[in-house]
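Meet my pick.
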Amino acid sequence: MSFNLVIIQPWVALAAGVLILAFPRLLNVLVAIYLIIIGLTGLVGH
């Protein structure tokens, strides 16, 4: 099964935006998780 990040990223951004509006303190956690995932996928891609 192919995993395409270009298709997934808008959905992740939308979900994160809704969660941040509902729970503003989640911003730090969501940003940290997002950065870790993007960093790991960037490292694995090379």
